[in-house]
Design brief:
The strands form 3 sheets. This protein has a 6-stranded mixed beta sheet, with helices on both faces. Strands 1-2-3-5-4 form a 5-stranded mixed β-barrel. It contains 7 helices and 13 strands. Strand 1 and strand 2 form a beta hairpin. It is globular, with a radius of gyration of 20 Å. It is α/β, with parallel strands linked by helices. Helix 2 packs across helix 7.
Length: 311
């Protein structure tokens, strides 16, 4: 029995790194039956046990206990299944672009909530700063300051202008990082710029839709020459949250937490209840309009029980 780390999963085949050697592997059939509530029992980052067979391929027989994972409701499924995106990570960077495709703060907040639920530190990368109009740049820098005050690091980058690439590379050091965000925001381009040896294929955005095209088809773990590693993930346009009750949502917004114990009702959802301390804080501008609107948007989808409509 050998132990290794999953570095790539294409569905049928799973590449496992064992002592620096990549072993193409498959999953033992029973493992799928034991994980019927998940689309895939194994994720990139998992530590697994495997048997190396006569043809030099591996047969994965067990998944070691995870210390964390990021998961979502599998998109487009009436029966709720979990999709485990990554496992055993140290930091998740949510990547957006200023333009092409347009910046989506609602998705950023939804992904930060997902990080909070799993106690995974998260931050934000705003890429393509060279494309930002002056008024957008001002808005981005105001939000940059707001998120920093909440404890989320923010890095403004541009591959074209080599803006803050060294800063991002330094932040990646000695950690297992994840880049998460829509197609076309430049996740792969950032990695190529930081470490040219990675050489991930990239595409331009669609002229018709102004949305990113899916270039990265599967999650892959890359080691960096500067130290640390990064998981490049396929683009996402929506994220269905799991295992959050409506009254629990506010606990995953850091700026809401100081006010939660001062609401009249213990299970206050902070949208319609009287004598709500969170609503008072919002009215006094201690909670921004943008974040409160994001909260209400997520709350609405949780109440519908159809969380993957939130974008």
């Amino acid at each position: 029995m050998h132990t290794g780390t999953v570095i790539r999963s294409t569905g049928t085949w799973i590449d496992v790194s064992v002592k620096g050697k990549v072993i193409p592997s498959r999953i033992r059939g029973r493992m799928r039956l034991d994980h019927e509530n998940s689309t895939q029992p194994i994720a990139v980052g998992d530590r697994v046990g495997l048997v190396i067979q006569n043809d030099k391929t591996g047969l994965i027989t067990q998944v070691h206990q995870r210390y964390n994972c990021l998961q979502r409701r599998a998109a487009g499924r009436k029966v709720r299944k979990r999709q485990i995106l990554v496992a055993n990570v140290d930091f998740i960077w949510i990547v957006q672009a200023t333009q092409q495709p347009a910046l989506n703060w609602r998705l950023v907040d939804r992904l930060l909530v997902a990080c909070e639920t799993q106690d995974i530190p998260g931050g934000v990368v705003i890429n393509k700063m060279d494309l930002a109009a002056p008024d957008l740049s001002v808005s981005i820098r105001e939000l940059d300051e707001y998120y920093r005050q909440l404890g989320y690091p923010v890095v403004l980058t541009s591959v074209a202008e080599k803006l803050n690439l060294k800063t991002l590379s330094h932040l990646f050091s000695d950690k297992v990082n994840v880049l998460l965000g829509p197609s076309g925001v430049g996740k792969s381009s950032l990695l190529n710029a930081i470490d040219p040896e990675i050489n991930i294929p990239t595409k331009s955005i669609s002229n018709k839709t102004s949305k990113g095209r899916h270039t990265t088809a599967h999650t892959e773990l890359h080691s960096l020459i500067t130290g640390g590693s990064v998981m490049d993930t396929p683009g996402i346009r929506e994220f269905g949250l799991l295992d959050i009750k409506p009254w629990e949502l506010a606990h995953h917004f850091p700026e809401f937490r100081p006010h939660l114990t001062r609401c009249r009702f213990p299970a206050c959802t902070h949208d319609h209840e009287p004598d709500c301390a969170v609503k008072r804080a919002h009215m006094k501008e201690r909670i921004s309009d943008e974040r409160y609107e994001s909260y209400l948007n997520i709350l609405y989808t949780l109440r519908l029980g159809d969380a993957d409509i939130g974008r």
